[in-house]
Amino acid sequence: MTKDPENIKAMLSTQFNDFILGRHEMVEPLLGDGIFSLDGEGWKHSRTILRPQFAREQVGHVEMLEPHFQMMKRHILKHSDGSPFDIQDLFFKFTIDSATEFLFGGTCGSLRDESIAESGGEQIVNGTDFAKCFNASQLYTNTRILMQWMCIFWNSKEYKRCNEVVHKFADHYVDKVLKMDPDELDKNSSSKYVFLYELAKQTRDPKMLRDQSINILLAGRDTTAGLLSFVFYELAKKPHIWSKLRKEIVDNFGCDTNDTSNVSALSFESLKKCEYLKAVINETLRLYPSVPKNFRVPIRDTTLPRGGGEDESSPIFLPKGSMVAYNVYSMHRNKDVYGENAEDFVPERWFDSNVKNIGWNYLPFNGGPRICLGQQFALTEASYVIARLFVKVA
């Protein structure tokens, strides 16, 4: 285990070709052969076909988020009497609904239920069942990763059932898009951006379409939902930060309570100009990184820059096939980098020029060739939801 940024930089970037993810067997039942399960040439091919799908014009479309926000808002307003509720659960439902629409062109509709007088949409599988199965499959998969080669003993009937539900949902949309001729595909693509439509222009392999879509769904859903949950966890404890963020958002977009809201002004470009909002998100990702710990496996005997010798400042040997974990959570709380208040939630630190140029000491979305393709998508979605909530409740 290392938290040294130089070692992490070596594994993820400067010595990238010495390491692999080394987890295909553990994640394959759910993820198949996708960008987060493959190494080598398979990963390179995945990266090549997926990169264009996360260009600015695709991730900048926030209009598709509004219907899902409206659905989530109705759940929140059920508690306008001040009764407690779990907003994290709503964030996870919101992100899986918006992610399935972005990826497949149709939402699983997990926010739709009788409590807000809504029934599910297109019922390939029950939206709630799909969301629950997706959650369960992720938990099983995470456990399989921890168990390493012993994952063969963690393959229950429930895990298989949940994977089947997830795959059935994806297969429905894959079959649908593969039945379109090129003209129909172009016509549907012109009305709104759908990840699967664009991917189908590059490959007609149904397994690849399903696997890559599920890989992106897994990453996109959890990153944003976790980020939103921790943002409001910290804001709830710190009224002065809440007030400062509220002022910036209301100054830019108004608020519903005094009929000054201008939701149409919420865009990729306008959200990027909200400097304090960016600082709040950066600080949240620092204290609560989406992937707090990770690992790599060397494919040949190699070294890392630090950890050897009596003072641990010399290179350290790594034998082929060993597992090397790295701890982003600890690195992000390093007092030598972030000061004595490194454990505290202080968005203002991101206006300090020294912190802005910390390089590999800040790693919220991985780094090197495998840096997260969807990071801008996650940041835009999180920014939109935060701003919309403030416009509504401020």
From TrEMBL:
Coiled coil: none annotated. Keywords: Heme, Iron, Metal-binding, Monooxygenase, Oxidoreductase. Pfam families: p450. The keyword Iron applies. InterPro entries: Cyt_P450, Cyt_P450_CS, Cyt_P450_E_CYP52_ascomycetes, Cyt_P450_E_CYP52_fungi, Cyt_P450_E_grp-II, Cyt_P450_sf. Transmembrane segments: none annotated. PROSITE patterns: CYTOCHROME_P450. One of its GO terms (molecular function) is iron ion binding. Its cofactor is heme. Heme binds at C372. Belongs to the cytochrome P450 family. PANTHER family: P450, PUTATIVE (EUROFUNG)-RELATED. This is Cytochrome P450. It comes from Scheffersomyces spartinae.
